[in-house]
Amino acid sequence: MPLVLSDLRADHLENPLALRRVTPRLTWRVRAEGTASAPRAHRIRITAADGAVAHDSGWIDSDATALEAVDFEGAPGSDYRWHLAVRDADGAEVEASAGFGIGLADWDAPWAEPVQERVLAEGPLEIGPEVFAPAADAAPPGERLHPPRHLRQAFNLPAAPVSARLRISSQGVHQPSLNGRPVGDGLLAPGYESYQHEISVMTHDVTSLLREGANVLGVILGDGWYAGRISILGRSAQYGDILRATWRLEVDLPDGSRHVIRPDASVRSSRGPIDWSDIFIGERHDARAEMPGWDEPSADAEASEGWTPCALLPVSVPLVPFVGEPIRRVRELPAQRILTTPAGETVIDFGQVMAGRVRMRVRGERGTVVRLEHAEVIDAEGNFLDNILGVNKDQADEYVLAGRPEGEEWEPLFTFHGFRYVKLIGYPGTPEPEDFTAVVIANDLAQTASFSSSHARLDRLVQNTIWSQRSNFLAVPTDCPQRERAGWTGDLQIFAPTAATLMGVAAFLDRWLRNVRVDQDAHGGIVPIIVPMPPAMDDPDRPNAGLGDISDAAGWSDAITIAPWELYRHYGDPRFLRDNLEAMRTWVEHQTAGAAASLPAGLDPASLSPERLARQRLLWNGRMNFGDWLAPSTLDGSRPEAAGLDEFSAIMLAPQLTAELTGPLFQIRSLDLYAASAEALGDAVTAAQAREHAAAVRAAFAAEYVGDDGRIGPDMQGIAVLALAFDAVPDEIRPRAVARLVELVQEAGVHLDTGFVSVPFLLDVLWDEGHADLARALLVQDTAPSWLYEVDHGATTIWEAWNAVHEDGTVERMSMNHYAFGCVVDWMMRRLAGIELLEPGYRRTRIAPDLDGVLDHCQAHVDAPAGRIAVDWTRTGAEARLTVEIPLGVTAEVALAPGWTLDDPTELTPGTHTLRAARTEEGSAS
Ligand code: BGC
């Protein structure tokens, strides 16, 4: 049997239609079946649409499964095929091929701008308590929002096409159709990005939707992120208040001719059945106003009233190819039960917190209005509780029945909600569960890992994390899918290692990182705390528009060093480093300059010795940031400093206590990753300089903040964890710092007191310092704050705060769907299941199952670039059996805890291995 080739990808995608890079990275997987020997050489030829060879790598002696054809540059707008040949050690050859297209670099079509009313700019301009309070006296949405526009362009084709592409973009969200059929299965296109700098173009293969003769292109345009209510403020019209669309329909006919259809004077627009639609507020659809056939060729549609010509305007913002998985319907969940609550309300329970919307079947009288309100929780009494308050955060949809005797079905088009429960108002007749389906929407990323074990609650924790990722990898990586839906950079960096383990995030985060860089450039080198940064929070004339003093923040802005590094580690693609190295450099230089320019509040330079002043000038500690955000002891009243604080001040206590330290700690982190990135790219000089600088910052940090007794700064768990994890504690003090951390954990009754930015490192630090048992105890702790408390209290996602639901069932009005604390899954995969990446792309992997721990059995896998790495192990008493699967292109070492011996060699080559281990000594690793 020969080698088997699969998963041919260009820039991490299967057959992408429009790449942004003209030199794609090509990757593939090789499997050996039967007697095939390992791959020894490969050759790639790239051919253009006319069959001409555009690149030939020649035979390359290597077992690598990736190639960047550096001397190939694809022409914008062209399609290519690439042909891969792989030779094994015996000279046997196999071949496979796949396609890719290069997107357009320039755009030559105008905007079509329908006649419309301007979107009203409304909602708060500053963050204050009212942003999170019930919206007082807001006028009904119908009085403030306008109907999405329907656009149609009729055209004739002399013949059915041999090939056709629709490239389409919009200011606002769009839904295209051709001859009455939806184009593609994407939703909410083109997604969310820093629209003032660039807007994505979606590319569709529409060959089968076109025909000879009359055709019609339809486009529905809604406010979306561009003009609708967004982010923490819930303010509208931030990027613009007029909706527009542009397209290029490229049709290749059998005679070899190409017709390009762009918006022109023939485009007409009208309102349709959607009265209003907003991502935050919701959508109202009046089925009585539907326009059957509006996007099909028919004389009626042409002649009907209300269709007006569109203005044609030049496109001045750069339009760029959208690269990656679109937002799609990724799951459907049936209603689990319909409750009548103690308050007498009808509430549908879908059994799962998610991001999406409801598809409903209904039959009733024409004009009946059904309203669906969405929330993530029910309260202690079992009543529907709207856990997200705030201006324009309604999350409510309405449907007006046409009164069709056979019944009608509806799902909103341009909105989504964060919810599990739906309050149903005005439904005619008795609602039955089968009439309601929750449609989960997300960027359609592949799941690339699994974890299933003898510990059902830990399994649930992993599932909850996957659900939170699915709910928040939606357009951009967001904090939550209901209240803010914002690209908080901190949340993403915290979760990045887990995100890249659980799902194929390469293209998604690559796209977001472009936005990070664009926004960084627009902010003079500062990486904003939210990307895309909503303009309303970014107004230099209103310094309090955003978060007051916080514009660049430790552990948030550092996403620019952390996220590319994680992508490089997981996918082994150096371009993640190459593309971001300059941005990393700008960021660490900003930290350095900031360190020199400011001292912590209250520190008078005149009162400092020259040595201290010199040290302080090295530390990036003079600016407010979020500190170890949401550290439990700052919120639960257990710290003396918290006495008498109101809710808002309590939330700001963690920043007050810890920001001075998280600043320099993340400065060290960013310098380290910048150095590592430069080194990986072969720039040893830059790497050495950054390391030297990091060493100086470490020394200054230690002298200023690390006590001889091992207490660091405010003596809190999170700070100890970060200082140890980032190696900011001198060797001679380290044992005392570890002992103090252990004491702090114990004093907290074996509970974590780590906030957002330190929690990813807590269990690793304890484990690496010889306290594996304490790490395990924290993992399975089930009183709050803890991971399993959430699981035991009904969580189906990861909560924003550990005690979002209290012991007595009282529910906090917080997000139930914030992935940050799910970062522990990366640890569970490495330390419990035992699949640990050692070299970028998993080329070298450690198999280190926790045979001394809380699991008797674990089955897990990670889909590495080269193929699946899987473990399946069972411990019975003092014996363990392991089955390990290693793909071609990966080598692995087995590392068992001290006391365990393996009957087999510890070095694993590709293939499936069954191993036996026995515990020869009593006692575990710690
Ligand atoms: C968001 C976070 C975010 C934070 C900044 C919150 O309102 O939901 O997850 O990172 O603000 O501290």
TrEMBL record:
- Name used for this protein in its record: alpha-L-rhamnosidase
Q: Where does the record place the Alpha-L-rhamnosidase concanavalin-like domain?
A: 341-441
| Pfam short name (any one) | Bac_rhamnosid_C
Q: Is Hydrolase one of the keywords?
A: yes
Q: Where is the Alpha-L-rhamnosidase six-hairpin glycosidase domain positioned along the sequence? A: 447-831
Q: Does the keyword Signal apply?
A: no
Question: Which Gene3D superfamilies does UniProt cross-reference here?
Answer: 1.50.10.10, Galactose-binding domain-like (2.60.120.260), Immunoglobulins (2.60.40.10), Maltose phosphorylase, domain 3 (2.60.420.10)
Q: Which InterPro entries match?
A: 6-hairpin_glycosidase_sf (IPR008928), 6hp_glycosidase-like_sf (IPR012341), Alpha_rhamnosid (IPR016007), Bac_rhamnosid6H (IPR035396), Bac_rhamnosid_C (IPR035398), Bac_rhamnosid_N (IPR013737), Ig-like_fold (IPR013783), Rhamnosid_concanavalin (IPR008902)
In this chain the Bacterial alpha-L-rhamnosidase N-terminal domain maps to 161-330
Q: Which reaction does it catalyse?
A: Hydrolysis of terminal non-reducing alpha-L-rhamnose residues in alpha-L-rhamnosides
| Gene Ontology MF terms in the entry | alpha-L-rhamnosidase activity
Enzyme class, first EC level, given as a word: hydrolase
Q: What is the lineage of its organism?
A: Bacteria, Bacillati, Actinomycetota, Actinomycetes, Micrococcales
Domain Alpha-L-rhamnosidase C-terminal residues, every copy: 834-897
Entry's EC annotation: 3.2.1.40
- Keywords from the named record: Hydrolase
A biological process (GO) of this protein is:
carbohydrate metabolic process
